[in-house]
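Two proteins, back to back. First:
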Amino acid sequence: MAEKSDRISRIIDTVLKAAEGDHSVRVDTHDKDDELKPLCHAINKMVETMRKHVAGCKQVEVNFKKSEEKYRRLKENIPGMVYLFAKHPDGSYSFPYVNAASRQLFNIDPDDLMRDSTLITRLIHPDDRERFETSVKQSAETLQPWREELRHVVNGEVRWYDCMSRPEIQPNSDILWDGIILEITDRKQLEEQLLQSQKMEAIGQLAGGVAHDFNNMLSVILGYLELIKSGLSAGNPLLKDVLEIERAASHSRDITRQLLAFSRKQIIAPKTIDLNKLITQTEKTLSRLIGEDIHLRFLPENHLGKVRFDPSQMDQILVNLAVNARDAMPDGGMLTIDTSKVTLDEDYCRLHIECRPGHYVLMTVSDNGTGMEKETLSRIFEPFFTTKEVGKGTGLGLATIYGIVKQNGGYINVYSEPGKGTTFKIYIPRIMEEDEVIEKTEEVSLASGSETVLLVEDDDMVRRMTSAMLKKIGYKVVTAETPLEALSFCEKKDKHIDILLTDVVMPEMSGKDLRDKIKAMRPDIKVLYMSGYTADIILHHGVIDKGVYFVQKPFSLNDLSRKIRDAVEDR
């Protein structure tokens, strides 16, 4: 009996251990006691079954954790703000979940946003808030998905976002939206460029069609005038009137030629030319054209290479730009023409849809005249648009230049500010020599850094592009749209800045004046200037001092990285 009692105690002990989670225990079934043997077998089978179930549950748990980790990484690494947005029965709103992208997109910590949902709505551009509130309300009432493109103001900078979500009612009567917010600022900029390009294309097609038909009519008019003239004697009183009609018709024919050039329907005869040589041959003509009060300088780059261009059209470009510069400098001034070799990389061309990566000859024509407002700049290449008095210009000069450059495979842009002059940059594809080796920019080691840069630029697109470049090479960036905004930031003692990267010409004050004011507060700050104007034009204005660090727009990532390192490491 004692032996049997001891065996029962061992069986009970095994069952208790199995119940506590030890599934390795077993009951000895080799005993001859047939009465307890079936029970021992049953207990062992039960423990083995429990072991298998526990092992299965552990594997499920492992798989679940892996799946959860994968889902978490997906949410955190997606290039947009993933969120859950809830409307509660009492009418209040909250963010039950926000991923880490809120820091990058809105400079808001996810925990702060989950504590206070109004943080993000405060950033919505005032002109879009009513539309945003209406969309959320309609989505809550109809339980339909909604999608809006909204502008937000982040650090004083306007950005565009694509917001989309899907609502559903929860058991507690909450309405819960799950969605994502993606920044589309670059896309909106490209859309604006595309619309401008399409507008110019449409104007060009219209102008070209009108010019073609009008040219045919003028050919008929001038032909009949020739016949009439041949039938009139030298003393005929009608001859004077016929000559006046012929002069007017010839002038109209010249206008149609300019329209055909703008629309790129003019017949051209491109040749391989040395641009430096052609400009040198044109210098005397340009000097006579602009007068003695304006000094003409030509600054050629040696070993420029050659381009394929219609020489007569290049003469036309130089003459038109010189005439415009002369009219912008009624009291005299300086007209500068310089040439250089440039390479436009994919980073730059990605934000400028009109250009293509490649090697170009850049011809820059700058004056220090009256300059232009932004509204005028946006229309200067439109045919018949002119700021001159009636009878002083047709408004076709710059339109013609635009068409010629496009027809020859190049592109043109312009920088100007009221009172600061104007700079035209014309990019012409360069003919590469067979033995010429060009070092690829992507193979160049970029000079990266980790300093904090205060970027001051009043042009939204340039500011965003430059900020993206700086971040790509490791810098921390603080952006300011205006000099006053930059000064306000620098007044905060707890904010650290290593280098000021500022545009030279801005509406409120010059880059030099901004630099002087910031230097008074932060004597050790480094400074790098940037401008679309050439360095010599900027120096002539006295806007910056000789010997300072300067990078000319448009710049490549390599140009910017090298120049900013030079400025940061200056002793």
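And the second protein:
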Amino acid sequence: MRIRSADSNRLTRKGRLWRREARLAGAVVAASLAVLPGCTSEKEPTRPNVLVVLADDQGWGDLSLHGNTNLSTPNIDSLARDGAMFERFFVSPVCSPTRAEFLTGRYHWRGGVRHTSSGGERLDLDEHTIAETFKAAGYATGAFGKWHNGTQHPYHPNARGFDEFYGFTSGHWATYFDPPLDHNGEMVRGKGYITDDLTDHAIEFIEKNRRRPFFCYVPYNTPHAPMQVPDRFWEKFAHAEIRMRNRDPEREDVKFTRAALAMVENIDWNVGRLLEKLDELGLAGNTIVFYFSDNGPNSWRWNGGMKGRKGSTDEGGVRVPALMRWPGHIPAGKRIPQIAAAIDLLPTLADLAGIPVKAEKPLDGVSLKPLLVGEAENWPDRTIFHFWRRRASLRTQEYRLDKEGRLFHIPSDPGQDHDVAAEHPELAARLKAELEEWIRQAQAELGPKDDRPFTVGYAPLTWLPARDGVPHGGIKRSNRFPNSSYFVNWASTADSITWDIEVGHAGEYQATVYYTCPENDVGSIIELSFRGSAVQAKISEAHDPPLIGAEHDRYPRWESYTKDFKPLKLGKIRLEVDRGPLTLRAVEIPGGQVADVQGVALRRLD
């Protein structure tokens, strides 16, 4: 299904929501009748479908549901009206750790996730994922969006339990309009605005699998920077007065806030499209829908007065929206005050679906089913931990111990303004000891450095992007953030680029370099080598396109722009099963430079 034109979408959101409510009510009645005594159906009730939507860098405060009058999010808000809202739901301070915790039900450091790029975002291969859990139970599984837990097989989503993948594996992407994307391991070109395109493919997956249970994961990459959004969403905010401001308004950049809110309203529109498709197919009554975000807001903007933003282990950096709907099972309008976290999602969704979790390692999360369906009695207090870049905090039901050892009573002090450690010395001492032990375990499991190589040959095509490579000599990255960067300033035969790889399948590979090169510098001979095998080719064709991205930015970016890189087939290279540096260098440079390089692709030929 492709995006419908603006002319065919002139119905108001209120009208669309009214029709959805009517269809949803019909679905609930039908589901109820199917299980009444004396009623029969053509087949036994099937297990519920699962649809999980994850926003990227959306704060708790970026919803009208939570009181933000700067924007309107009726479709997302409807999930709380028709289902449950977790009032205190926590994730990690940044992207890849939260995704790992959702996938495994375990704290991110247990699975080797320590950074957001350069290989540190990869989830260890001995971790069992939520997709593998549902796939083992007969579910069709699909992921559509930002993966951010490994690029090369067997770290790729297709190797972690997802039958279908469409999106990108990096931490962020350089352009959101007609972007290059990954479809089941092959490079393709997206169509239109990325969030709309991801939704199109998720809808196609739902339609294709409507007659069997499915697990559909839609991890959007917005409102993460670069701040790009279609005109029809931007126009509302371009000059809008932002009435609700950050707790420290002098820190807020209002233009950035406008772009972020426009991007959230686009997410809301796409969530509406997903919900409408469930209605249209008669699946709403038998589909669990869960919506959340991966960390706090990516700028200083209104966030309910909480302290901190993305990257912080304070309340505002780790508390996010979390809404779940399952008609006929989760009471409409339910509010859940107990603390919960991303680590709880695997056990909770599996429990709701009635399928076993076959993870070989103990989970950190717990099933929240009793809280959702009203069966909880004497729910115990618990501790949820947050850890990022040597900063750590913990949260109990009422207190947060921050990275400095200060204690805050969050119900009465959500802004963390008054340290009460002196008033509760025994509690403060106990929580400090608990946090210190947790940090010790995390550091011990992660180790001093990440020594995992990049894997080659475990799938037909292996992509080694610049973010996973190491420049030597005068070569530099196009930006200090590795994600979506490329290599520049390659001007000497002493320069090189290396990737630490481990080949898992011996044989011949077609090696391709993706490059740009101006006319005056054509003619360099470049070589790719590994453990005594090498292949050379000459850059004989100029390709010097302009940078892409600035024309769509609503706010000046800090990430790299990109270009349309051209493939240059170097030829066949023999790779044996081994570990070592894959090296790209120049053996002859007739001009002033060699080329800019986006990455290397290795395609198995046997």
